[in-house]
Amino acid sequence: MKKRVFSGTRATGRLHLGNYLGAVKGYLELQNNPDYEAIYMVMDLHAITTPYDKAKLFENTRNVVMDYLACGLDPEKSIITAQSLVPEHTFLAHILSSEITVARMQHLPTFKEKVKQHPDHVTMALLNYPVLMASDILLYKASLVPVGIDQEPHLEVAREIARKINEKYGTDFPEPKRFATQGEYVPSLTGEGKMSKSVEGSYIGLTDSLDEIKKKLSGAPTDSGKGEAIPEKGGVANLFKLVELFEGSEKRKEYEEKYLGGGVRYGELKTELAEAIFKEIEPIQKQRKIYENDPSLVERVIKEGAEKAGIIAGKTIEEIKDKIGLIK
Fold this sequence. Notes:
328 residues; mainly alpha; Rossmann fold; 2 domains; two-stranded parallel ribbon; 14 helices; 5 strands; 56% helix
């Protein structure tokens, strides 16, 4: 039997380079592997666990689906839809929440980070985020999850819940593992952390023009251009990492040698890097125009994907109801 893959992207706006290299490239690799059955969703229920603009949520969801399709996800090979269209996600999440403690959730580093970011919005939905994520994965009995390394604590929660449920009720949920991609960590343009839609000025969007990319890179922090050791963190280290991701390790080595020798001209580096990035995403932008000009294509993909996902999800819910003693 084919192994099942599940992953998703929060509906918080159009995708950026971090999403593309850290997740979508992994989606494509697994989609095109005949050994796997892939399910990829836009996680609109996860998006409402932190403050959001309700007027933009629907459009954000559609935009992510368009980005998926433009990047090469194929509805003939993968199930592509929105999380909220499959109500079994929240049903299973409630069941799973009975197997994990509040204390366990409160100690997750991701929860603590979100509490700092949104001290006035510490809701039960935020606390239950990892449980809903576990439900997303276990509902489809997925064994592989292409996500960034920052999601590993959440995957451990999913594995922990799967073990408990299996031991207690005799279910057969697999313990999901992370599928890592080459660009699983794409550094921020600010010089700190990774690219994130929640940090202005930190990311390059998949729909950005060459001029927009150049402008964003021009603001990336640098130094004098030379030193006795290659920086391991900060703006220069992040630029070198981006060079490696989009121009290759040999190009990075070339710049590092210049840094240790006569010096790097950052204007030249940033211009070349901008052109390399745009070369990578320009075909995606051209493909996206097809879906922008025919919204009905996107609507059909979402609707048909929800129907296919619902069939799988319904079977899992019937099994779990029987196992734990709920009325059917």
